[in-house]
TrEMBL record:
Record lineage: Eukaryota, Viridiplantae, Streptophyta, Embryophyta, Tracheophyta
Gene3D superfamilies in the record: Jelly Rolls
Keyword Lipid metabolism recorded: no
Coiled coil (residue ranges): none
Keywords: Signal
Domain of life: Eukaryota
InterPro entries for this protein: Cupin_1 (IPR006045), RmlC-like_jellyroll (IPR014710), RmlC_Cupin_sf (IPR011051)
Official protein name in the record: Germin-like protein subfamily 1 member 11
The organism of origin for this protein: Noccaea caerulescens
Cupin type-1 domain boundaries: 1-62
Amino acid sequence: DVFVFPEGLIHFAANAGHVPAVAFAALGSQNPGTTFVAETVFGSNPPITPALLAKAFQLNITTIMELQAKF
């Protein structure tokens, strides 16, 4: 599969399979720009599943839900 993300778009990928996955990333310039990750990740609409964020940030689900409530 190939995925192309527009400039400035916060994105994530999760391997839902049971075998290892490989990913390659490339940027279109030396200056990728600035994005406010906390606001974009915890304040996304629709929200990202708390269980997935808990695993990604190595936090418990309660903490993730508290962070999401602030955005």
